[in-house]
Design a protein that fits this description.
The complex is a heterodimer. Chain A contains no helices and 11 strands. Chain A is an all-beta fold. In chain A, the strands form 2 sheets. In chain A, strands 2, 4, 5, 6, 9, 10 and 11 form a 7-stranded mixed β-sheet that branches. A 4-stranded antiparallel β-sheet of chain A has the order 1-3-8-7, with no helix packed on it. In chain A, β9 and β10 form a beta hairpin. Chain A is globular. By secondary structure, chain B is mainly beta. Chain B is globular and about 45 Å long. In chain B, 38% of the residues are buried. Classes of the chains: A mainly beta, B mainly beta. The interface between A and B is medium-sized, with 24 and 19 residues.
């Protein structure tokens, strides 16, 4: 079946530094990937839609200069949290859309970011 | 805007018990409805879906019926197993299939004990 990986699975960084999270579709190509954020005991909130070869579309209230998204190829999207602060600590989840067969989203296992 | 409300967990059941996880939604138009399951250490997986009123989605013994009159999509299983222990998310898409923007509920953790 369709598999999506994320790297790293967890990361700790110091306040003010930047951290990059990778999302890869392993056995299918994805023109479109999605980035979600999940707070404890809360639902997944869509942050942005990542489109291969074009700029990402951000949801209302998401700072595009803080959460940089680059969809460099049909199998890779990256989310860079710039100048991270403790309030950015969260669980970040990506998904990739299979546009050839099922048109469903397939989710990665998530990345736990802790900013100290 | 669109929203999904599902019952809080954790829900703890004995093996072979009957499961119901309630989910209600608010949306304009005619959304598609989904249940996703997340096993420990893994990504969310689509469990079942329904795209129009009165449709019943089913998979692995789980069922949910799209009830437009009560704006609900409750998840049920007649006899749960320990292997069903996971977090279950109800979700909707206002633009057709699950490949579009999804609005999620908060998730319900299910623990099944022997």
């Amino acid at each position: 079946g369709a598999v999506v990986s994320q790297h790293p699975s967890w990361v700790i960084c110091k306040s003010g530094t930047s951290v990059k999270i990778e999302c890869r579709s392993l056995d299918f190509q994805a023109t479109t990937m999605f980035w979600y954020r999940q707070f404890p005991k809360q639902s997944l909130m869509l942050m942005a839609t990542s489109n291969e070869g074009s700029k990402a579309t951000y949801e209302q209230g998401v700072e595009k200069d803080k959460f940089l998204i680059n969809h460099a190829s049909l199998t890779l999207s990256t989310l860079t949290v710039t100048s991270a602060h403790p309030e950015d600590s969260s669980f970040y989840i990506c998904s990739a859309r299979d546009e050839d067969i099922t048109y469903e989203q397939y989710f990665g296992p998530g990345t736990r970011l802790t900013v100290t | 805007g669109d929203s999904v409300t599902q019952m809080e967990g954790p829900v703890t059941l004995s093996e072979e018990a009957f499961l119901t996880i309630n989910c209600t939604y608010t949306a304009t138009g005619y959304p598609s409805l989904f249940w996703y399951v997340q096993y420990p250490g893994e990504g969310l997986q689509l469990l079942l879906k329904a795209t129009k009123a009165d449709d019943k989605g089913s998979n692995k013994g789980f069922e949910a019926t799209y009830r437009k009159e009560t704006t609900s999509f409750h998840l049920e299983k007649g006899s749960v197993q320990v292997s069903d222990s996971a977090v279950y998310f109800c979700a909707l898409s206002d633009r057709g299939g699950g490949g579009n923007k999804l609005t999620f509920g908060t998730g319900t953790q299910l623990k099944v004990e022997l």
